[in-house]
From TrEMBL:
This is Large ribosomal subunit protein bL25 beta domain-containing protein. It holds the Pfam family Ribosomal_TL5_C. SUPFAM superfamilies: Ribosomal protein L25-like. GO terms for biological process: translation. It comes from the Eukaryota. InterPro entries: Ribosomal_bL25/Gln-tRNA_synth, Ribosomal_bL25_b-dom, Ribosomal_bL25_C, Ribosomal_L25_dom, Ribosomal_uL5_bac-type. Coiled coil: none annotated.
Length: 235
C-alpha cells in the first residue's frame, strides 16, 4: 500500500512557513542513475537512498505541441538528507520551496522545484521516491501554494465564540520560477461571524496568475459554532 504527498499533510499541525530569505538554503545532493525498476529501487532504499527524477514541467502538457525537449534525468538522493530537509522546511511548504541541486559526477548544479510528488509507504511512512521539476529563471510553473491563516488571536468573530472554517488549504498559481511564494497568507484579524475571505481578495505579485475558473470561491469563513454546517475543506 502506498499514498502520495497529499496524505502527508494531515500529520502536520499549525506549521510555521519558511521565510523568503530561507529559500535556496538547502542544497540537495544527488548522483545520476542509469537503471530503473522495482528491484533497483528496493536496493537503493535498503542502502539509505531514495530514487528520484527531475524533468521540465512541460512534460505534463496534454498537447504534444506545447512540449519542448525535456531535461529529464534519473537521480538517487540520500534518505537522511531528504528527511532532514523535510523536518527543517516542514511538509506543507516543501512543494513550494526551491532548492539547489548538486549532481555529483554530473553536470554541476541548477535550481529545481519539488513538484509535490513524494511517494510514501502507507504503513511505514518511508519515502519511496521523489519527483522534481526544473525551475530555471524565466520559466513559469504551475503549483499549489499552501495557505496560512494569521490574525486569529485578534479576530472579532473568534472572540465571540465563532469557529474558523478553513475551506482551502492551498491555491494553484502559474508562477515565474524566480517569484514562487512559499506560502499565501490570509489575514482573518478583522473578520466577524459570517464573514468570508474569497480568492479574489488575496493580493499576490502581479506576475502570479490564479488558476481557478471561479475566483469568487471562499477560502475561509467565520461560522457561529463549530457545528454550523461548515463548508468542506478543499485542497
Amino acid at each position: 500500500m502506498s499514498r502520495w504527498w497529499r496524505g502527508l499533510k494531515t500529520a502536520v499541525q499549525t506549521p510555521t512557513a519558511p521565510s523568503l530569505s530561507a529559500r535556496n538554503y538547502h542544497t540537495i545532493q544527488a548522483i545520476p542513475r542509469e537503471y530503473t525498476g522495482n528491484r533497483v529501487s528496493a536496493r537503493d532504499r535498503a542502502q539509505g537512498r531514495i530514487p528520484a527524477v527531475v524533468f521540465s514541467q512541460n512534460l505534463l502538457q496534454k498537447d504534444p505541441a506545447n512540449r519542448y525537449p525535456s531535461r529529464k534525468q534519473l537521480l538517487t538522493t540520500e534518505m537522511k538528507q531528504i528527511k532532514s530537509i523535510l523536518k527543517s522546511v516542514q511538509a506543507p511548504f516543501f512543494c513550494s520551496t526551491t532548492f539547489q541541486l548538486q549532481i555529483r559526477a554530473g553536470s554541476g548544479s541548477s535550481v529545481l522545484l519539488d513538484s509535490g510528488r513524494i511517494h510514501m509507504d502507507e504503513e511505514s511512512g518511508n519515502i519511496l521516491n521523489l519527483v522534481f521539476v526544473w525551475a530555471d529563471d524565466g520559466t513559469e510553473l504551475k503549483l499549489d501554494v499552501p495557505v496560512v491563516f494569521k490574525g486569529e488571536e485578534d479576530c472579532p468573530g473568534l472572540k465571540k465564540g465563532g469557529h474558523l472554517n478553513m475551506i482551502r488549504t492551498s491555491l494553484k498559481y502559474l508562477c515565474p520560477a524566480e517569484l514562487i511564494p512559499p506560502k499565501i497568507e490570509v489575514d482573518v484579524s478583522k473578520l466577524d461571524v459570517g464573514d468570508r475571505v474569497f480568492m479574489h481578495d488575496i493580493e499576490v505579485h502581479p506576475s502570479l496568475k490564479l488558476l481557478s475558473k471561479n475566483d469568487n470561491m471562499p477560502i475561509c469563513k467565520i461560522v457561529a459554532t463549530k457545528s454550523e454546517n461548515p463548508e468542506p475543506m478543499l485542497v
